[in-house]
Amino acid sequence: MKAVSLKRMGDLESKLIEAYPAVEFVFTKGVSEIEEQDKKDLDIIFGYDGKLNQSFLENCPNLKWMAWYSTGVNSLPLDYIDKHNILLTNGKGIHAKQMSEFIIAYILDDYKKMRTSYINQQNRYYDSKLTGSRVSGETILFLGTGSIAQYTTNIANAMNMKVIGINTNGHSVEGFSKTFALNELSNALTEADIIVNTLPETEQTIHLITKAHFELMNETTLFINVGRGTIVDESVLIEALKEKQIRHAYIDVFENEPLNPSNELYSLDNITITAHITGNGKENMSEVTDIFIKNLNHFLNKGFLIENEVDPKQGY
């Protein structure tokens, strides 16, 4: 059994080698470093490399399982993976803690007018009458009720916010006072003070939010996107911000990354941009490797996986 990594893993490498003497581990910095012979006889690929594509997989005829260390799998050749019955797992759940903190930080930054205070500081202007708003009693709508939303919901409920959510069929989720089906999106938007997108990219979610949806939102709405940039056409988002259809947006993900310096989003004054950093965390490698180890135990002993398996047809 040969397992090839797409990342160097420091001390975790020796941990894996010692724990699984029957597995031949090959540690690399990505697909460009993997030797041709390793491609031919590897059984497992684990880690992350944005350069991995169908052409690479076509040279891995023995591949049985890909343990993808990111949550999103939309960049992978899912049709090929499905057609060749390659098992696929992801890093779902490990990013929830830091992403929930970012979401709450965005909300408090906005409601407590921290950006205004910083601008005042830069201008050496002391405004002791500056008054923020409470989040208590505000309604927050999560587009997607998965692990990120659920973790954030614990904090939002503790802050006495009303939490509602959108998922595929409107099934109830612990911590949410109300859930809507995806086809009820328009109704849900009208109830929200804060809208947070945490949805993955699928055929159903690409450009899900349209111009008509922004028109339904209250002009005081705060829109946050930490899911995928493709949830809304960039030109539609720009128009909504320019026309003040919403009050402010905090955007961490974009249709085309990295964001070009000439992008019009940089010139708008009612958007705060972060560079796809909400999922970054020092603990990620260790925690996602723990998931890999759990699955590896079952894969070696029983031939199946038990955690974070992804359906290539669905994309999650």
Summarize the structure.
With 316 residues, this protein is of the alpha/beta class. The chain has 2 domains: 1-91 and 281-300, NAD(P)-binding Rossmann-like Domain (Rossmann fold), CATH 3.40.50; 133-271, 3-Layer(aba) Sandwich (Rossmann fold). The protein is built from 11 helices and 12 strands.
Give keywords.
316 residues; alpha/beta; Rossmann fold; 2 domains; seven-stranded parallel sheet; five-stranded parallel sheet; 11 helices; 32% helix
Topology:
Layout: E1 2-5, H1 11-19, E2 24-26, H2 36-41, E3 44-47, H3 54-58, E4 65-68, H4 78-83, E5 87-89, H5 96-111, H6 114-122, E6 139-143, H7 147-158, E7 162-167, E8 178-181, H8 185-189, E9 194-197, H9 211-216, E10 222-225, H10 234-242, E11 248-251, E12 271-273, H11 284-302
Helix pairs in contact: 5-7
GO molecular function: NAD binding; oxidoreductase activity, acting on the CH-OH group of donors, NAD or NADP as acceptor
Domain D-isomer specific 2-hydroxyacid dehydrogenase catalytic: 37-302
InterPro entries: D-isomer_2_OHA_DH_cat_dom, D-isomer_DH_CS, D-isomer_DH_NAD-bd, NAD(P)-bd_dom_sf
